Amino acid sequence: MAKKIYNSVTEEILALKKERGAILLAHNYQIGEIQDLADVVGDSLRLAQEAARSDAKVIVFCGVHFMAETASILCPDKTVLIPDLEAGCSLADMSLPEDIRRWKQAHPGGVVVCYVNTSAAVKAESDYCCTSSNAEKVVLSIPADKEILFVPDFFLGSYVKQKTGRKIHLWSGYCPSHIMIQSADIDRLKAAHPAAEFIMHPECGCLTKSMHLADQIMSTEGMTRYVGESAAKEFIVATEIGVLHRMRKNNPQKTFYPASDDSICQYMKLHTLEKVAATLEHLRFEVKVPAELAARARVPIERMMAVA
Ligand code: CIZ
Questions:
Q1: How far does residue 43's CA lie from ligand 1's centre (Å)?
Q2: Which residue of 25, 44, 45, 156 sits with most ligand 1 atoms within 8 Å of its CB, as the best mutation to test the pocket?
Q3: Is the shortest distance between the CB of 219 and ligand 1 below 6 Å?
Q4: Nearest-atom index, ligand 1, CA of 133
Q5: What is the rounded distance in angstroms from the CA atom of residue 140 to the CA atom of residue 37?
Q6: Of 29, 66, 99, 290, whose Cβ has the fewest other Cβ atoms within 10 Å?
Q7: Domains of the chain and any CATH numbers
Q8: How far apart are CA 130 and CA 304, in angstroms?
Q9: Is the CB of 131 under 6 A from ligand 1?
Q10: Three-state SS across 190-243?
Q11: Is 263 in the pocket of ligand 1 (CB under 6 A)?
């Protein structure tokens, strides 16, 4: 059959989405063009929940691999597609299931809390999952006499340790995009924009040095909500720069300064409109977590959802 001719890639995506009965989910760190076409833009948890809630049988997930896995775990009957299979996560790659097994052996009785930025295989070895928006709540829900093994993000773990005062062992993983943000960037921007509120993601490598300067430390979902509600007119935003698109779009009267122009996740930026169109046309590339692994990985995710 002859390939249909479309006037633009946008038109092609919208037509194919309808034809396939698909929804398009975009993470807050996606390029603006993808966010603008998405049915839902959000953090990984919100997107996985939307995937589960939706009637659509096909989910095009514009985010990184572990996020598509979480969607597949929560909706095993749906087809979860990712436009570029190379869209991985360096932080998620910093912990492996065998690391967790060894860590648990070294700390018998320890409760493993894994950040959402982990593979399904690591989640399957964990007791609780958490996101940056609920990590504190998840940790506080664990009996106070338990030691906690927090994996893989060192900075989020340090923040939660400080906030909760709990005995937490930290893994030494980090997000290469967030560690691009340095304390010197914050000092310079605070001096240049004294009226701006400074909002910071807990994955930031400068966390411990700049934490006392932050007006808010929160997840990307928390940030996008907060900037709409705050009376402030200017914000210094310390996270991956993709999130500024939604902030600017929803708040045209406000000004947003990225804490660092270098805080870019190259994996998130692998998805393009052309690849989204190809995904819908060929129904490729599926991310499917095998049933036995998914059943084990679902346990810490559901515990997190029950708490948060
Ligand atoms: O859960 C997510 O989407 C991540 C990794 C960060 C955030 O704060 O949204």
A1: 5
A2: 44
A3: yes
A4: 8
A5: 38
A6: 290
A7: 9-88+268-288 (3.40.50.10800), 92-174 (3.40.50.10800), 178-258 (3.40.50.10800)
A8: 6
A9: yes
A10: HHHCCCCEEEECCCCCCHHHHHHHCCEECCHHHHHHHHHHCCCCEEEEECCCCH
A11: no
| Tokens at 195, concatenated | 């009226």
Please tell me if the CB atom of residue 25 comes closer than 6 angstroms to any atom of ligand 1. no
What separation in Å is there between the alpha carbon of 8 and the centre of ligand 1? 31
Task: Tell me if 44 CB under 6 Å of ligand 1.
Answer: yes
For residue 148, give the DSSP letter: E
Sheet (strand 22-27) strand order? 40-42, 22-27, 58-62, 79-81
pLDDT tens figures, 150-168: 999 999 999 999 999 999 9
pTM value surpassing 0.90 = yes
Ligand 1 neighbourhood includes 279 CB (under 6 angstroms):
no
Token look-up 């860590």 returns 103
Sheet with 255-258: strands ordered across? 216-217, 197-200, 234-238, 255-258
The reply to whether ligand 1 has any atom less than 6 angstroms from the CB of 116 is: yes
pLDDT digits (tens, 9 = 90+) for 93-113: 999 999 999 999 999 999 999
CA distance 164 to 167: 9
